[in-house]
Amino acid sequence: MKLLVFIFLTCVSFTNALYSQTDSINVLGEVFLTTTRLKDSVYTTNTIKLKDSVLRLNQASLTNLLNFNSTIYLKENGLGMVSSPSFRGTTASQTAVLWNGININSQTTGQTDFNTINTRGFNTIEVTAGGGSVTNGSGAIGGSINLINEITYNTGFTNDLFINYGAYNTYGVNYQTQYASKKTSVMLGLSRNASDNNYPYPETDQINVNGQYHNNNVSFASGFKLNSKNTINVFANLYKGRRNFSVPTPNALRTKYTDFNTRSLIEWESYIGDFNSNLKLATTTEEYEYFANINSDFFTFGNVQNFIAKYKLDYLVSRKMLLSAGATYTHNNGRGSDIQSKTRNLAAATLSLKHEISKSFLYEIGLRQETNEDFGNPLLYSFGVHYKASSFYQLKINTSKNFRIPTYNDLYWTGLGNPNLKPETSYQAEMSHLFSHKNAMLTVTGYYNQVTDLLRYVPGNDGVFRPENTNEVEIYGLEGIFSYKKKIASHSVSFNATYAYTVSENKETDKQLIYVPFHKLTAAFGYGYKNLSAYYQYLNNGEVFTTTDTISANILDSYMVANLGIDYTLGRQKNYKIGVQILNLWDEAYESVLNRPLPGRNFNFYLNLNF
Amino acid sequence: MKKSISKYVFLLLFVSVFTVSCTSDDRDDIVQETPISGAYNNGLFILNEGGFGSSNASITFLDNDDQVYNSIFSGVNNRDLGDVAQSIGFNEDNAYVVVNNSSTIEIVNRNTFESIATTTSMIVNPRFIEFSDSKGFITNWGDPNDVSDDYVAVLNLTTNQVETKIPVAEGPEKLVIHNGKLYVAHQGGYGYGNSVTVIDVETQAVVTSIEVADVPSGIIVANGSLYVLCSGKAPFTNDETVAKLFKINTATDTVEASLTFPSEIHPSFLELDNNNLYYTIAGDVYVVSIIDFQLPTTPIFQTSNNGLESLYGFKVNNGSIYIADAKDYDSNGEVFIYDSTGILQQQFSVEIIPNSFYINN
């Protein structure tokens, strides 16, 4: 049997071809009702699905993965240090990060630090652009990223070991063991990543000082089919990381930071007649400690425990109409060195309808009523249509109202917090054109997004910064996503590219927000021949303003970075793979945050064993 | 065959897009002409501290022909100044730039701005520098969270190395030298101070400590007396206290008189010009005569009338009032120069977060 070596071909699959899924509404029973079909899915926006094989080719941080494979702009305070996204020109806390459907953005900062997510713990990462607050709640304004453990059955006992080692004593060890019978599936993954991270700053005689990090991740996913109608899934994730924050200048006081995050989820799915019921109960904890002086025992901390309950009932009204009702309850309990112990409770009810009027036309409506009086009980909505003109062309239109609630820091920071803050609100609309032809697929999306009551820290005349609902931001842009794959005899080629043009303006000043590039382009080429595969990743980030006056002297230059990788599959069962990667192939001197240089050309080796 | 060749040419072109970098290094920045070395001996330095962690501190120079030159340190020395430049001290031919978050002192020739030395050893979170004979005295917070590791570093001006540390109370900030004594105001680091430490310059020993009010942010010697402006604790501390202005007898090192500000008023800065003390409240400029020593009820002028957003630097010299506007702390700041009656004379853009002024002549 010939092992398929197309890495990229299978890796980035765009769920744009969703019509095949809506068709399945007609096919009652198992096909449609196997959960993921309609669960939390929106038919009128676009999602990129990054599968296991592509996750493997990237470094283990979510920053690296999304930098090279999505339109999201990432700013990283030096390799492995604090990293935050700007999705469709929005701020760092306007991207919702979900773990198996549960929102895990920090309650203290409102953001997820993308360098504290180890992608090796997941087998699918979905990136959905645009508003998603109706399904994903607070923060889903620029888009949502869902970290998923997909449960597979009937694969027997399998083990997978992935080891990489490279420059600056950077290593990763990832081991996954799985047992999956017809009715039971249990997966345990263990992962450790570490680096001395003392890379030289290109074109200078300086090195990255105090940048060393290590992190450990445990992931667990299991599914139990109790009977033909009931399934229980249990998920857990544990992340413990320690980073020294690299110093901006070599003699500065050295600091360190630790993260400890836990997530656990139990999910009960049941299918009874035309009903599909889904209950999720989850607890998550987040904890950080910051040592402003690495040699001192003194630290500041934040600690939040969350309990989340989500229930959803889908009812298949007819073969072409699905009605869903749901409720979400979130309880947060947080405290910190500068936050007195506070609990808060949030609840929301959701109602949605998906209706396939004809084989080529579908619309969907979603409503979400929030019930927290502090935030004015906002009613959120989404509405979209999907039109399939032919097998070549499809059109999607979606409009939604989304929000983000203030964080613990914003509300409760001693002396500075502002308990009167309102949520940020976003009204947006987008239109996507999808073109499919043989092996190629192109999606072009235009969008408009208006964010009001933007939360910012504004200096008072005493020079002290306090959070306020400030101005309005108007964002519009264009996204293009292209994929192509072809196989001729033993050769396979693939090409994937994303491009984003983003205008994100403060309406008060009519100036582009800082750290939002007008242009971002990514591309990936893959080539496979028999046991050999090679790939080339390319990233080009446009210049960004680093000051709000957008003057050219304070522009951070655009940059391009490329990686080249090659691997070879061995073994009688084709179950060993060795590979090498040249990262930053062209030795570009670049930084994504002012005066925080990233590494020049360096090498990484990897080995993958399946047994 | 021909077809396949054109195919390859296309492929080559296509590939070149993703291999050749088309980045904005090539953009034509407006390159600022730096005056030739030796041209800094007549004019005004404006220190721009830069964003915390951004390592973009810089120095602007205004020459006597009103020409503005930005980034003179990096222009002359071809490297960045560092992260959060706090203050500059001048002694003989040298300027000592205190770079807080870089924990360095950049020593340059004050007239050419060419680097002489960078002092790093025994400097942790430095704030301000003063001089006496062959020594420089630099206040240091150390680890800002540690209330017991603060000190005054004694810099040997010949070797440019720190010789010793004089441990002091938390948060040493501005300092003055008078009559062989060093007066160190403890504004507070991450906490809040309320004292002035007196150190004998000769023996480098702490002589006494003078208790003042909370947050002594300004300290100046006028007519043989020491004046200390205490801002009081701000409301966000949840322990708001009143502001006071002290007059201290430097012979006995005791408080001779004090003026108390109305509650909820938090003045900053303290400048001396022509027997008058100047300070600011929010964006308004006030003056106290050292002869009457009475608090005024009205400002001499309000900077907000000129569109000033965040008053962050303040100096009064020879009838001119220099004010730095940090704006939103995330863009280039501006400088406003007024005459002593508050008539705006000059206004120009500088760099990120201007915090202080130094006259070189």
Please supply descriptive tags for the structure shown above.
heterodimer, A: 611 residues, mainly beta, Maltoporin, Chain A, 6-stranded mixed beta sheet, 7 helices, 35 strands, 6% helix, globular, B: 361 residues, Methylamine Dehydrogenase, Chain H, 4-stranded antiparallel beta sheet, 28 strands, 48% strand, 40-residue YVTN family beta-propeller repeat-containing protein (chain B)
Mean pLDDT of chain B: 91
Sheet/helix structural class of chain A? mainly beta
Fill in the CATH topology of chain B.
Answer: Methylamine Dehydrogenase, Chain H
Helix-strand topology string of chain B: HEEEHEEEEEEEEEEEEEEEEEEEEEEEEE
Based on CA inertia axes, which overall geometry of chain A fits? globular
The CATH architecture classification of chain A is Beta Barrel
Largest interface: A-B, 48 and 51 residues
Strand segment tally of chain A: 35
Radius of gyration of chain A: 24 Å
Number of domains of chain B: 1
Terminal CA distance of chain A: 17 Å
Shape of chain B: globular
Number of contiguous helices of chain B: 2
As a percent range, the share of strand residues of chain B is: over 45%
Keywords (chain B): Signal
Protein name (chain B): 40-residue YVTN family beta-propeller repeat-containing protein
Signal peptide (chain B): 1-21
InterPro entries (chain B): DUF5074, Host-pathogen_enzymatic-act, WD40/YVTN_repeat-like_dom_sf
What is this structure, in a nutshell?
Chain A has 611 residues and is mainly beta. Helices cover 6% and strands 56% of the residues of chain A.
